[in-house]
Amino acid sequence: MRLRLFHILPLALIALSFVSAQTVLAAASCEAIIKKFPQAAPGIKIEFIRPVVVSRGELAEGVRVLDLVTDAKVDGQLLCKDDQFVRFTARIGASADANLRDIFFRIQQAAVVSIIGWPARRAAATLHGMTAEVADFLRASIERGDVELAGKTEEHAGQAGDIGMIWTRTEREFVLVAAD
To answer: pLDDT tens digits, residue range 122-146?
Structure first.
């Protein structure tokens, strides 16, 4: 029996979808993210540490909040439930110099690569487009004289979750949220 392309193609697509699903599931592990993140941003000292928090209440059971610590002025947090990724945020002041903005971009790219599992080129292209879009939205908000001066945009990343950017006159924030 000769195998033709139309016999092999469905099997190849099933195998590819299984591999893609495994990649998404592997990217959702917080321990894997903590290991991959610094590798995805070479040249930037990145650590995730458990912050000292003084609080009257407790977090929900199994919830872990880790602070992003870098050698630059970038604030960030990684939120996990048990070992599953829930949310990542990073922010800088809007008045940041070009070097800090570059580091912030590289941290955003590292987040997309290590959490969502996208290749670095795809992550960079998506982030460049989103950055231009959010800057335009902020500029339009200022020109209109909106009560809340802000620009925001989001990108759906399939089963991995959503990517969002929110800019105001005082800060820039990047958010990755896991899918429900």
So the answer is: 999 999 999 999 999 999 999 999 9
